[in-house]
Amino acid sequence: MAYTNSPLVSYIGLSPNHSGQRTHPIDRITPHCVVGQLSARTICDCFPAGREASCNYGIGTDGAVSLCVEEKNRSWCSSSNTNDQRAITIECASDKSEPYAMNSAVYATLIKLCTDICRRNGKSKLLWFADKDKSLNYSPKSDEMVLTVHRWFANKSCPGDWLYARLGDLATKVTAALGGTAQAPTADSTVWYRVRKTWADAKSQIGAYKELSNAKACVDKNPGYSVFDVNGVNIYTSNTTGSACPYLVKVSISDLNIRKGPGTNYARTQYIATGTYTIVEESTGQGASKWGRLKSGAGWISLDFITRV
User: Fold this and answer.
1) Digit-coded pLDDT (tens) for 126-159
2) Phi, psi torsion values for 56, nearest 5 degrees
3) Which of 9, 29, 43, 88 sits between 20 and 30 A of 78, alpha carbons compared?
4) 41 near 65, Cβ under 8 Å?
């Protein structure tokens, strides 16, 4: 098919970071939070050669749109080759901390850009299932586009809870603008918080809760258990150290691991960059005298290698 780019673009700053022409037709849109109130041009500037990251479009804090990777090419944005081959990826200016809120100009432009992307690619409806497995296993009809999110492919909070909570609204407004028929409600879009010893040990599960507060209360009554989100990330372990949270810490080494849970027995997801971070929870665990959970939701780090600010 012949690929085109959006006429909404006001700045072009093409990044060399892409894999060439797509191997799959476009049938997904993946919006991201760029974690900063950046301009459209600055978003493109974030992806110089050697960065190993990019996106198709950027939406600046004033609502302006930039083109970083042409639609015909696969960007490096979602930590998933499969998703990026078929998705248009959009980095949106946002706050630097949870819930990574976006202003009204950014959100309004996101609606317009998604509508334009769907229309030029022959789609009359945008779908949001609020469920990873259903979304990734769904085969879109020829007139359908599906929303996906970065957090499904990596241990990240992207696109942030602010936008994640509005993706249903985004899908509805885009579909209405296209003149399509709104999707039927999903059978069950409830987010369940599971209480287990480890995510891999499903047999250890002692509860699944719709309310995070109830899941945390269960953990507090059962030492050795944690709360896991739908992606298997440990989001709460009872604070056994008695230290007051939250507080700031400074990371000065470049190879400190972020792990899915409080211990070296949990998988490493990435290295944390040097800088200042907020710890919202502490726990004991294997491999360190104390572990801290990052406010960003990225995971847990050893507190043996940090300086408290």
Assistant:
1) 999 988 989 999 999 999 999 999 999 988 889 9
2) -75, -50
3) 9
4) no
